[in-house]
Amino acid sequence: QVQLVESGGGLVQPGGSLRLSCAASGRTFNSNQMGWFRQTPGKEREFVATISWNGGITSYADSVKGRFTISRDNAKNTVYLQMNSLKPEDTAVYYCVARQSYSSGSYKYFYEYDYWGQGTQVTVSS
């Protein structure tokens, strides 16, 4: 059992920045692939970013590449998402996800993950 708790969301103006945090507890493995997805009402969950167990390999959705940065601190069982140059279309509930087992995959689909948090709301508006 792994529990993920997101925090750091809020209201920000276009062009602003937010830093999301995801704290993991319970049966947590440093080898877990971690990531972020987001969802707005009426839309499917959208892949945002993913990071390998040691933080050495990251991947981003084209829509956020160059603006968002995913990182992790395994000593703190925490993954982060630094979001810069935010746009109104970034408005969504952001979910932290974790993959339990080591296996190959794209890591860009929600079903590839085993755990997720309750989400944190990010609203980008003037």
Structure, briefly:
The chain has 126 residues and is mainly beta. It has strands at 2-7, 10-12, 18-26, 33-39, 46-51, 58-60, 68-73, 78-83, 92-99, 115-116, 120-124. 0% of the residues lie in helices and 48% in strands.
Can you walk me through this structure?
It is a single chain. The mean pLDDT is 93. The strands form two sheets. Strands 2, 4, 5, 6, 9, 10 and 11 form a seven-stranded mixed beta sheet that branches. It contains no helices and eleven strands. It is globular. The termini are far apart. It has 126 residues and is mainly β.
Properties at a glance:
11 strands, single chain, mainly beta, seven-stranded mixed beta sheet, 126 residues
